[in-house]
UniProtKB/TrEMBL annotation, chain B:
The lineage of its organism: Eukaryota, Metazoa, Chordata, Craniata, Vertebrata. This is Catsper channel auxiliary subunit zeta. InterPro entries: CATSPERZ. GO terms for biological process: flagellated sperm motility; sperm capacitation. Coiled coil: none annotated. Signal peptide: none annotated. Residues 25-37 have a biased composition (Polar residues). It comes from Canis lupus familiaris. Residues 1-89 are annotated as: Disordered. It comes from the Eukaryota. One of its GO terms (cellular component) is CatSper complex.
Length: 195, 205
C-alpha cells in the first residue's frame, strides 16, 4: 500500500520511537476529520470512510470494508476520531516501513483490533485477513504457527502470551532472531503454565 | 503587527521629539551596553545595518538570510532562537521593536525608562536581562498565539481541497438523490466551495 502522493496524510509523519503523531499533527488531523464529518456527528459513516480510503490509498473495496468492520467496534456503522486516528497511524507505519516498531509499541491495541470476535484469541485466519495492514507474509505466518502453536488448535492465547507473541512476531517476521531462541523465551515467559 | 513608533509613556527625559526612531535605536543601544557578552545582540544588528563596512553585522545579516531561506518551509516549527525570525530590514525592525517595547512595558516596572543611562542600577540590568530573555523567547507574540490556536492557511487549503474532492466523489456515488443525507452532503459541499472561492477571491484581490 502506498499513500497518494500530495495527499494530506502523505505530509504527516509518525514519531519513530513511539509510532504516534505529534500534537500538531493530531490537531491538523482533527480538522481534516471534522471537514469529512459532513453530518456533524463526530463520526464517518461507511460511505465517507470508503471514499476517503479510496482517495488516499491504493486499497481495493474489499480491503477497505474489512478495515471498516475492524474499526467499527460498536457495530454502529460509523467510526469516531479515535478509530480514525488509529487507522492513520497504521497507514503511516506502513508507508514509512515501521510496522515492526508499531506492533512492538502498540501490541495490545493491535491484538484487540485483530481479535474481531473478542474471544481473546487470534488465529491464522485473522492474520491472513489483515496481512495487507501489517505486511505479514504467508510463509512467515506458517513458520510462526509451526513454532508456537503448541496446543495445535491454530490459535494463540492472550495476556502474557500476547506480549511474547508480539515480540516473537517482530523477531520472526522481521528476521532479527532464530526460532530456537524464540521458543526458549516463550517457554520462560509462559506464566500460565498451560503450554 | 503595529507599526506605530514607540513612545515612552513614562516621560523619558531623553526622548527626542523630532525623531522617534532614534529614541528606539538609542534604547536598543543602551540596553545592550550592559550585556557585552550577548551572542547576537539586536542593537549590534541595528547599528551595523546602519554603519558601513561592519564585518560582524554583514556576517550576521548573511547568517540570518541563510537561516530564513532554510526555514522557509518550516512554519509549524518553533525556532530555538527567537531572533532567527527577525529580518534586518529597518521597516520590519521598527515594527518589531515597537512590539518588543509593548511587551517590555507590560512586564517591567516603568521607572526604569526614566533613569539616565549613566546611572543604571542593578535592577535595570536585571530588567534588561529579563526583557532580552523575554523578547528573545516571545517575539511576534500575537502571531504565535494565533498559531497555537489555528492551523496555517496553506495547510487548511490543502486539507479543504482534499476533503472537497473526497466528498464530491462520495456525492456522485450516492444512490438516493432524494435522500436527506444526500441532500445534506450536497449542501455541505456547496458551502465548502463557496468558502474556498471567497478565500481565493480575497487572495487575488
Amino acid at each position: 500500500m502506498k499513500l497518494k502522493q500530495g495527499s494530506f496524510l502523505w505530509y504527516l509523519y509518525l514519531d519513530k520511537l513511539y509510532c504516534l503523531l505529534s500534537v500538531r499533527n493530531v490537531k491538523a488531523l482533527l480538522e481534516y476529520f471534522h471537514l469529512l464529518d459532513v453530518h456533524h456527528n463526530n463520526t464517518l459513516n461507511d460511505v465517507l470512510f470508503y471514499h476517503f480510503l479510496r482517495h488516499v490509498t491504493s486499497w481495493k473495496r474489499t480491503q477497505i470494508m474489512i478495515v471498516f468492520n475492524m474499526l467499527d467496534w460498536n457495530a454502529m456503522g460509523e467510526i469516531g476520531f479515535d478509530q480514525f486516528y488509529m487507522l492513520v497511524c497504521i497507514l503511516l507505519a506502513q508507508q514509512n516501513h515501521l510496522e515492526e516498531q508499531f506492533i512492538f509499541r502498540h501490541s495490545r491495541p493491535v491484538f484487540e483490533l485483530l481479535d474481531l470476535d473478542g474471544e481473546l484469541r487470534i488465529g491464522a485466519d485473522h492474520f491472513h485477513m489483515y496481512n495487507f495492514l501489517f505486511n505479514i507474509k504467508k510463509q512467515e505466518l506458517r513458520e510462526l504457527y509451526h513454532d508456537f502453536d503448541i496446543t495445535g488448535d491454530r490459535t494463540f492465547l492472550t495476556d502474557p502470551e500476547a506480549q511474547t507473541l508480539t515480540f516473537s512476531i517482530n523477531v520472526t517476521f522481521y528476521g532479527k532472531g532464530k526460532p530456537k531462541h524464540i521458543i526458549e523465551l516463550y517457554k520462560s515467559t509462559d506464566t500460565t503454565k498451560r503450554l | 503587527m503595529e507599526e506605530k513608533p514607540f513612545r515612552a509613556p513614562l516621560g523619558s527625559r531623553d526622548s527626542d521629539d523630532s525623531s522617534p526612531d532614534n529614541d528606539t535605536r538609542n534604547l536598543w543601544t543602551r540596553a545592550t551596553l550592559s550585556q557585552p557578552k550577548l551572542n547576537v545582540p539586536r542593537s549590534k544588528i541595528c547599528d551595523d545595518s546602519d554603519a558601513e563596512g561592519s564585518s560582524l553585522g554583514s556576517k550576521t545579516r548573511r547568517g540570518y538570510s541563510r537561516k530564513a531561506g532554510r526555514e522557509s518551509g518550516g512554519g509549524w516549527e518553533e525556532r530555538e532562537d527567537g531572533e532567527d525570525k527577525v529580518g534586518c530590514r529597518p521597516g520590519d525592525l521598527h515594527g518589531h521593536l515597537s512590539l518588543e517595547m509593548e511587551l517590555r512595558r507590560g512586564s517591567i516596572l516603568g521607572s526604569h525608562l526614566e533613569e539616565d543611562v549613566d546611572s543604571k542600577t542593578e535592577t535595570e540590568v536585571s530588567s534588561s536581562e529579563s526583557w532580552l530573555s523575554m523578547s528573545r523567547h516571545t517575539p511576534h507574540g500575537a502571531y504565535w498565539i494565533e498559531q497555537q490556536n489555528r492551523l496555517p492557511l496553506p495547510l487548511m487549503e490543502v486539507v479543504e481541497n482534499e476533503a472537497l474532492e473526497i466528498l464530491t466523489k462520495a456525492l456522485w456515488s450516492e444512490d438516493g438523490p432524494d435522500h436527506f443525507l444526500t441532500k445534506h452532503l450536497q449542501r455541505y459541499i456547496e458551502g465548502l466551495k463557496r468558502r474556498r472561492s471567497k478565500r481565493l477571491h480575497l487572495v487575488m484581490y
